């Protein structure tokens, strides 16, 4: 079924990839040259997608988990007629081009996920396949399969060595995600050399152990073989499939089969030699019309598929108008009109742990937003992120909205990225704040891809007590505040917690991180009126000084705000008149106008003390050279929480003494 | 072979665990109650260790990867006669006790690794088994098996769900670490409930895919069965072994077999009921003498084993005095006398990438320190951390000193922790700085355990260029500076890089992180004389102002130091007299005396500008409210490095303009 033009099309992908890389004098030719055939078969013959509308919700997804092979993806996008021109290919890896070194979601039309950090493409694909299954369960009706697509991944050897591939594959097998299909570019070579120096896994056995279907293609250039394997994979009704396709890295290049061709350009002669081997005699960046024509058939098939779907959805909308409305709201990333009805309300005198306020919010948000779902890495009972009236997301109950990620934090975060990328959901993930370490690079990818996922991180300080230093976060608040594109909230009481969740759920372009307490936090005077706007602005004067201008400022976040409010009272008894600033979100505060910032932290008030049960590193910018930070710059300990808090200096007395001991600001010499 | 006293001893472990947890009113009874039999068999019958000398280098290692089951470990340590008394058990989870919530290395004699963050015990055990094999290859001689021991791990279901278990098991299988034996406490329950909600792996198939031997014990109370399985595992000559032992979580407790017993105390009645089921009729914290006597046999066997070994080592030392000297120096964590001979020397006019200076250092350190080894997560070619005259650590060449970790960053870091914990090596790990994210919690465990491992993180800024934002670190420098117990170095030129490596290799109690450039860094005037002391102090005046006191200070680290030196010259042309401070290590600077700090950053000089190609968050504490930080608080981009550097404001002009635009310090109102 494959002819000469198909072969030529495969070589067109290779030639374009070579030209891009040579022109950029940088890139990874190894994968594009060996995986061009599988890329071709998939894109030209198997995938359902419309190159003219890369956002169609029911398209098949494609994730190049081995993101360094980006030239393959850009070549394909160009050939099928997406918005990647020859000029774009010539701008490969240059500033502000749509052909960056690794695929970037939001930068290039048709790129379904940002990849490069190995293994995470696989993890995001897990999430996409979960989203597909969940949405199909919720929205599909007899004769109306409005969500019905595959998720394809192209993985290299490196992806499968990464631990996240275990987490993701194990969960995918458990969830019976039969529409997840991984093409494994098995070339036995990684950056440093033959993989036989580092790995001896039996891939078939490994994936069968996870409950996967395994297919083997012995010749990576065998178009028919690849095609049939994909077809068999599509026929699976219960198992995800991995197709191991044996290839020769850098196929056709002088150094084919070695790591020298993984990430080094071929050079002029190498490029010529490879093209000669392919029988490719066209000038650089020049594609014969018959190849374009062949790809056009693909494009037309894809356009037709979307047109059919649009008709289907029209009929669906007539028959199920409410569900269709919800579906449209969901896939446009909007919230339902009444998303914030009946949210919990707190009164003075109430006290509640941050995680419990979050629990109540999640219950109500779940009622208000039918496409809101999420999970925990086996810490539902502690994070309190389970929705009690909803089922577990399982093969038998794919409509379930509680995702049991298992003890797999990294895959959890990658999966929620995938769910968000898929579209149609509002999603959250949870674990202890300290274990955010396990998922850190996936949170970075949430931020880089501007995904509005919410991370619920409970047990936000040493106040978790006896579990000890391995469980007590210290550096985590600072480390996330340093990460671009995330917004971290550390609310001081139930009112701020509600306000934080409200901002998190309304995000359109960034992940929100909620750092929530295990211990009770009393409702503080004033937050009822101030928290809404105050949290949105990142910091605000929660308790004013008595006079016109404060003599000093006490700044705190989270569970330390009540402490500094007490200290303010004691200081007032000594006729020291300070204000108290609650700072739930540094990132949001930093975005405010200079005027607002100065109203909260007047520049000429330099006697400032911050208090937060975490690293002091990030507080210097607010307290300045003349201020002081009460924090924790060592590891915690296994002890009773109250004792630990006291031993670390989080007492009213220490705040008061620290303020009193601040030196008067020195004059300029 | 097991009798009534053995059964009673198993129940003694259970009873003590219950008593500890009830007394502390906190803890995880699930594992200790179900795993007491395997713990007993292992410790009483199979393990070679001397409870009176828990540091003996040739002891079998034991790692409780499921660290929440700490009560099991403390009970065993008590019963075998280590330094854990009944009083200590009564102080379980209290401040400064030697029985913290999770096992902590360095806190409790006989605890071989700090565990709790799941999966990492498994990863550290990988490293220990690698260290054993490597040291055996180097030091053992015919009839002198001075290193010859097993590494035992007790893992739970959670450990095996974690991705790191894949990375570690895959590498262990590849390395044919036959002396690594994992007891898998297979109780089918995790914190949130039955594991069947989240995982369906076929463990046998999975581990066989990694090249492991698999043993199955169907009754977790079957002492003989467990014993024989361990004996068979010890008999393996090529394969690591996992023994899946089916248990009932919280065996004997009213809620046995459910997650309710995982992390909740039994309560008075529950405790009584469980003890009744065991036929245990002794008062709390009371152990019959016949149980102590039985454990005494174990202890005596262990003492005898060490005595024999001491004799063996004496004879070895006579026959191989040099090797024995080296061995002793190594296991005491010392460096050879001439460890710093022939280190690279640089001249004015030289220029070299940080990673290349590091490469040269590693070559020479490797010559000088025969027990110095390390590896890369498939980035040797980029990190330049391979030793060219040494072999790959492989089954055929276990004396090899280049460890190919594969694309497994997390296991890499856990493994170097294990190698360091084992003793007898100086070890390093490497990857790109941005991918430190993948290993972050293991680095935290390096710090918490005070392990002197060196992390070589290359490609330390956006200056890596075209690979784009997924590969460009931004927040990483700040995020490590916030982590307690690590020392991060970001050297500005070859002299500082040498000084940094020298400090790293001399560390006895902390991990060192080297953030190294991909691009060339010129040797700066003055570093030849100043870098040694200057780096040790964390920051120093590299280029003085002209007058007595600077008008302002330019502070920078790494590749930005040359930039501020140029800016200093330009400012001098405008009669603005500033000093330049190179700050390779904030952590070390913060440890200096106030006097030294003030000599570098005089408190009354408040016009300060910092420059570093990373998050500005941590610089506020040095530049104060009146200073400014030039940094990068957004993601990078795929582009030519020079263009990217310029676009992010790292130009001499921008430094000069930023300094000039600093407002004069406002006066106090």
TrEMBL record, chains A, B:
Name of the top EC class for this enzyme = transferase
Q: Which reaction does it catalyse?
A: D-sedoheptulose 7-phosphate + D-glyceraldehyde 3-phosphate = aldehydo-D-ribose 5-phosphate + D-xylulose 5-phosphate
**Record keywords:** Magnesium, Metal-binding, Thiamine pyrophosphate, Transferase
Gene Ontology CC, one term? cytosol
Biological process according to GO: pentose-phosphate shunt
- Every copy of the Transketolase-like pyrimidine-binding domain together lies at 352-523
| Pfam families, A to Z | Transket_pyr, Transketolase_C_1, Transketolase_N
Q: Which SUPFAM superfamilies match?
A: Thiamin diphosphate-binding fold (THDP-binding), TK C-terminal domain-like
Family membership: Belongs to the transketolase family.
- Tell me the subunit arrangement: Homodimer.
Q: What is this protein called?
A: Transketolase
